[in-house]
# Entry
Amino acid sequence: MSYSFDEEDEMSEEENMDDESLSPMERLMKYKDSHLLLQRLRVVKDLSDTAKQIGYEETKEKLIKPLKDFGQDKEGAILQSLAEQLSFFSNFFIENGGSEGTEIVLSTLFPILHSLLTDEHHQVRGAASESFVAIASQLSEEQQKDKILPIITKLSKNTAEEEHRIEAGELLNKMASVFKGDILTTFGIEKISQLSKDTMFRVRKAIAAAIGVSSALVGEEVVTSQLLPIFLNLTNDDIWGVRKACAESIVAISNNCSRSARLDQLTPVYLELIKDTSRWVRNSTYQHLGPFIASLDGEDIPPKLLEHYIGMVEGTRSQYGDSDTVKFCAFSFPGVLLTLGKEKWPTLQPIYATLTEDLQWKVRRTLSHSLHEVAKILGTELTETHLLSTFELFLKDLDQVKVGVIRHLSEFLKVLSPERRKDYVDTLIEIQVHGANWRFRKLLAKQLGTLATLFDISTVTSSIIPMAIQLCEDQVTTVRYAVTQELGLFLRHLNSVDEAVASKFIETILPFSTRSSCYDRQTFAMICENLIEHVEPQVFESKFFQPLVELSRDKVPNVRFIAARVIVGQLYDNDAFGTLQPEIQRIKDTLKSDDDREVRYFARPDNC
# Structure
């Protein structure tokens, strides 16, 4: 149900102008009893801001009655807005009022909340349940038992109003992770058992979801002995919506029940759900097939399950599946491979090859983002034999696909042998030099420190260092920023391998500080900002400090701004640069009177 406003509820222009002159509290007092819906709605939406403005004491004295009054309003829009703010007020009262504030929550907010949980408008009930869970999380175990449990019990026992029982089931689902002490294992499971037999299918559906959430919280023994029998009954429900909810919860249960229950009870059920008469149940089961297989031990996977997984690539040709199943297959492939082990690669490789050539780019994109994970599982030899063609294929694919490979480029290359890695140096250069998409250059720049460790010093000197310098000169600011974040690690690696190469690289960076382009000078300041933690203080002092000081007097405010951020934010009062402190203090004092407001900001004492 949605809410609409009649024309008679529209405020006139004059009323709007008059309203702007009022404080939130004055506006509340003026309009809280208005017969116009829009006027009441405006002030109820401002309740949280009003409380922040007037503070705890005045809120306690002046807002509690309006809160109660709005809770009796007949308009759904008013009640929904109120319900959405009750969690704020609970937090506000408890944080500012301590035990007194908690008592206000229990005595005032809960009666309002209880009423809203049974409102005729489902938007109101939905907002109230979210606040109910948020408020419950702030209460102690005893307070939950005293205030929360009676409300859920009353809702669950309402035989006249099935919507109330549905609300109880959904609250059990949402509250599972919030219950404290033994409430979930006693009260929670008791209610789950009771409502799982409810005559209303939406109640049973909510309970199937609640079992999945609860299973991760109560321990293996409770899941196996108490929750699993309830769940197994629900998997045979006559209503497909309940069985679909079971399919969505089964992985969580499998992850938390005993091994024998997983194999002897859940697996047969899964094999029945995957050929359910409802396509929605089948689709949901296929969607979770990969994670379900991953929840089993590699040696325990029944051949029939694996057969279904292999059949997912057939999509619309599958006996039971749907065209969406191929997407689920691609998404879960790394988990399935990890569970089965690389020894099963000969079985899975044909599926993978088919997936990489799928016409749906979203399928290929999923695979491109996980290619590095598959490579890690397979190891160097199998990766070089079977995945390099896929790697190269994805690099020529649509940008939406290519991005996954580039994002994890260094992780994939790390799996390869040093000899094969060298074959892809040109690929790195191609991305940097000829890539039309600047986002790819940014992704490359963010991996520069790691990439340097993957190649011998000769390759780094001839290819990676020139690439780093060109990325520092990139036309796009975010690319330059990304590479400066990596240069500290980059230089530290160079220094650990060959000090002469590291020194030469420093000499290549230094001219940035005096270039005519303000962007280059700004880049140098950002480089300094990220070198401090990675180079020896004496190196920074002898090579980078004076150029940085000059930039603090640069004619361009943005350059001075970053120089000030480095000098005042990182060098000032830094024991590693003790001998420089008198000069840094003088620079700081000068920056206090800079023409630019943002530069002056970094020179203020409270920003040191």
Notes: Residues 413 and 423 are 10 Å apart (CA to CA). The mean pLDDT is 90.
